[in-house]
Amino acid sequence: MADLRLSGMGGTPFGNTANRPSSPSVGQTYNNGETGVTEIYTSLGWVATNAAPASPTIGTATAVTSGRAYNNGSASITFTAGSGGGYPATYTMTSSPGSYTGTSSTSPITVTGLQSNTEYTFTLSSTNNYATSVAVTSSNSIIATTVPQAPTIGTAAVVGVSATVPFTAGATGGAAVTHTATSSPGGFTGTGSSPITVSGLAPLTSYTFTVSSANANGTSVASAASNSITTGNPPLAIEALRVAGGGGSGSAGGGAGGVIYGSSISVTPGVAYTVTVGAGGAASSANDVQTTPGRGGAGNNSNITGGSLSLTAAVGGGPGGIVDEAGFAGGSGGGGGGGYGAGNKAGGAATSGQGFAGGSGVGGGYPGQSGGGGGAGAVGGNAVSNPGAGGIGTATYSAWGAATSSGQNVSSTYYYAGGGGGSYFNGGDQVAAGGSGGGGSGVPYDFRNDTTNYPTRHGLANTGGGGGGVSAGRQGAGGGSGIIIIRYSSSYDDPTSHNGTKYTSGGYKYFKYNSTGSITF
Questions:
Q1: Which of 266, 222, 250 is nearest to 488 (CA)?
Q2: Percentage of residues of the chain with pLDDT beyond 70
Q3: Count of structural domains within the chain
Q4: What digits encode the pLDDT tens for the residues 121-165?
Q5: What's the CA gap between 386 and 421, in Å, rounded?
Q6: Looking at the predicted structure, is the pLDDT value of residue 491 above 90?
Q7: Domain enclosing residue 130, as ranges
Q8: What is the DSSP code string of 435-496?
């Protein structure tokens, strides 16, 4: 049995450490003759009532990241109380470097005010009314991370209905950073490195911008507001005339390139659109009755692509049929190619809404009249007693031609996409006219070798005209290249970039493309 002798003063039990009461109550005292101190029983066990606290045991330090403002990092450090000393009133955690502190009577202790992206270790001591324990050192280090430092704004600039917002980034706060520019009014945003582009702004509206930076811990304070900019007035819709390349000829005329007009085509400012102008189809090789050459080549398509545009392409003209022992039919395309005479070959089909079919040939055996290529305005002529003429092109867009000096001018009316005229295979001097709109005329048989006075009639460049037919022993004609013309009201700004040719006429701005290019509104 433990020796529970009472002291002579107040009836406090006394003895050595081993003789402490086995089931003490909190608040019970004991005079320990072994250690020379009076002890009190607490939630921590027996502690001296008149001594410095024992050194605690420091645990794990953990960086606190969420929502920490720049240069106000935080760490949470666990600990366990020491034993054998006086009862501790408080515990103090101290950082190194910086000597930032946090105090608590329980674990863990939080230390705030830490500098961003800085490595820290910690020491811990306990204190009571008598003294402070010996400090102990953390077993691990942490890097304090916070939200980023606010960026410094630059001078914003307007580009159509977009703006570029330069800035200088601040410190990262110790984690990977993204930057966001925000407009006022509207809250339109853009992200990236400097300068950030903010798109989708309203035309003719004043805006300022701020930039903020964010990492895994949160978002920085926003920069100061930028200078005010006023957006431009670019078009949001355009009209576009697209003419494809005309078909090359053989003995029959090449078909005209397809023609498409589009109104109210929605475009997005700042998007670069590709303008593809179709080349004319190649001419057939020299042909006669002993060979089987290929017919002329089809014309190439024309279109405008980019962004969210989904436009139907203007289809290249069909090739004209040529000589062989049975003859070739005309090829299909925007406008159909003419059929060869021998074997009464049919003209090629056209693309609906873009052109017309080619004319048929007539004649049994090698001699025969070849049909004309289809135009954008009419079918190609069928051969009867003479070769078929090329189908006429379209004059619907004569005002566009007059404004941009394009198309084929016939008595002050401008045509696009005429079919090529057919030819006569064996004897005769008939000339089949090409259709107005760049269609080439056929070469008469009797003059097939006279290239000086009767040159090959290629389709006219940048009209989409079909090549004119030729007779045996001579290379066919190439189709004329296409053209694309864009127009919109003169009240809107010029494109921010383009490599077409600009014209202004009748309240419109026109941009003509004779070859492939681009445009950004």
A1: 266
A2: 90
A3: 2
A4: 999 999 987 889 888 988 799 999 999 999 999 999 998 889 999
A5: 11
A6: yes
A7: 57-144
A8: PTTTPPPPPPGGGTT-TTTS---PPPTTTTPPPPP--TTB--PPPPP-EEEEEEETTSPPPS
User: Which residue type is seen at 104?
Assistant: S
Does residue 133 sit in the same domain as residue 161?
A: no
Q: Are 94 and 157 found together in one domain?
A: no
- pLDDT tens digits, one per residue of 169-178: 999 999 999 9
Q: How far is CA 7 from CA 3, 48, 344, in A?
A: 12, 17, 138
Q: Which of 97, 124, 144 is the last residue of a domain?
A: 144
pLDDT band at 7 (very low <50, low <70, confident <90, very high): very low
Contact 75, 114 (CB under 8 A): yes
306-330, pLDDT tens digit by residue? 999 999 999 999 988 765 434 455 6
Return the CATH number at 183.
Answer: 2.60.40.10
Tokens of 215: 């990492």
Asked whether residue 64 falls in the same domain as residue 129, the answer is yes
Q: Tell me how far apart the alpha carbons of residues 127 and 30 are, in angstroms, rounded to a whole number.
A: 22
Q: Tell me how long the chain is.
A: 521
- What region does 400 belong to: left with phi over 0, alpha with psi -120 to 50, or beta? alpha
Respond yes or no on whether the N-terminal peptide bond of residue 13 is cis (omega within 30° of 0): no
pLDDT at 378: 96
Amino acid at 282: A
| Both tokens assigned to 330 | 């005309």
Task: Pick the last residue of a domain from 182, 212, 230.
Answer: 230
Is 179 part of any domain?
Answer: yes
Sheet holding 29-32, edge to edge: 14-15, 29-32, 37-42, 45-53, 86-86
Task: Note the pLDDT of residue 241.
Answer: 98
- Tokens 């190194």 sit at which residue? 96
Res. 363 pLDDT band, cuts 50 70 90: confident
**Are residue 138 and residue 69 in the same domain, yes or no?**
yes
